[in-house]
Amino acid sequence: MGTQGKPGDPKAKDPIDRESSAVQAVACFFPPTDFLNWGKDGEDGVGYGPTEKYAPAFGARASTASGRQALGKEISPINYVSSKMAPTLVIHGSADKQVPLYQAQIFEKRCKDLNAPFKLIVREGKDHGWLGMDQDMKIFADWFDEHLRAAKAGQGAGS
């Protein structure tokens, strides 16, 4: 969601559709970012292989290799990275067995390549969730304070 916001349509009849759907900042734990390169380059994770137990969530399109390729391109945030995306913070465990750290690492590389605002914090030896991750919520709050306050300050009077 953090990579796919779009500007509003100033000609839309509905005032809601005139507003941007882009978020201003993102902070998350261990997100999937590229379903077509799950734990290594070329590994299909669209309800197949390492994510097979989640196959029903991907729907009927995931039942064929060509369907998985098309769906994987559509749903992978890595395909929507741009220099204009919201500042994004990811905290990921180095021993995550559910969503490999590789997901955060390839996303970080794409962000660097495209000059997109991104920060990765790796929790060494941690799996998919860990005791004390509630303490990381302060890091999220600080991230939002830094980026949302800066965005609000830049709006000017009357915005």
Helix/strand order: EHHEHEH
Helix count, DSSP H or I runs of 4 or more residues: 4
Arithmetic mean of pLDDT: 93
**CATH fold name of the largest domain, please?**
Rossmann fold
Tell me the count of domains: 2
Strand order of the largest sheet: 1-2-3
> What does the largest sheet look like?
3 strands, parallel
Helix content: 25-40%
N/C terminus separation: 24 Å
Query: Quick one: how many beta strands?
Result: 3
Shape: globular
Determine the strand fraction and express it as a percent band.
Answer: 5-15%
How does the helix and strand content classify structurally? alpha/beta
Broad CATH class of the largest domain: Alpha Beta
Which radius of gyration do the C-alpha atoms yield?
18 Å
Low-pLDDT windows of residues = none
Identify the CATH homologous superfamily of the largest domain: Alpha/Beta hydrolase fold, catalytic domain
CATH architecture level-2 label of the largest domain:
3-Layer(aba) Sandwich
